Amino acid sequence: MGEFWSRILQNYPYVFALALFAIGIxxxxxxxxxxxxxxxxxxxxxxIYILFIAAGNVRGGVAPILDMTDTTLTYVHPLPQAxxxxxxxxxxxxxxxxxxxxxxxxxxYGTVDAKEIMRIRTEVRANGARIS
Amino acid sequence: MANKVAIVLLVxxxxxxxxxxxxxxxxxxxxTPAQNYVAERYIxxxxxxxxxxNMVAAIVIDYRAxxxxxxxxxxxxxxxxxxxxxxxxxxxKGEQK
Lengths: 132, 97
Hints:
The complex is a heterodimer. Chain A is an all-alpha fold. Chain A has helices at 2-10, 12-30, 34-55, 78-109, 114-126. Chain A has a single domain (2-64, 74-127), classed as Helix Hairpins, CATH 1.10.287. Chain A is 72% helix and 0% strand. In chain A, helix 2 runs antiparallel to helix 3 and helix 3 runs antiparallel to helix 4 (78-109). The longest helix of chain A is centred in the last third of the chain and has 32 residues, at 78-109. Chain A is elongated, with a radius of gyration of 22 Å. The N and C termini of chain A lie far apart (63 Å). Chain B is 68% helix and 0% strand. The two termini of chain B are 37 Å apart. Classes of the chains: A mainly alpha, B mainly alpha. The interface between A and B is large, with 52 and 52 residues.
């Protein structure tokens, strides 16, 4: 049990990533405001960046920019950082598209609350009216 | 109520992931499986292969250029979709069956 906790302590960046991921999922699950759901998705993406870049770290390593004057340097793994650049672009695309869809929903329903939108929809269905 | 269910669920999942974290290679140790010949190849060969001092730039623009190319397609598709969604003149049309 002691070894378990010491390993957890030494792997603290992964624990941070897990905590951020849990906070993101909790935000998505418990908030009905659509903007807050988007913020939760972005928090989850941030946790994935931390996980990847921490996995590529070496103790005592420097940023992977070649230093010609010093050949004894150890560099951190450059590949996770490059992959996370790709991930950031995807995350920006997802955020932009979801914000656009939320704007559209707001123009149509006059609210950004998911529960309110569901209520309006069920009322309209119950009255037998077509939304037009 | 829903908040408590979510918290209990997340704590259960978090415990399992903590078990996994305790089995991961130690943070920052140089002999993890992640620090294999791939990292060595990129660090040693980036300057000769691509002429870039910055290895991340070398990977993004040269080694994995197709990845970056398709990534711009992703961005382009997202921008087109945003413009389509926000197109003027479609407000109030409702559900078109």
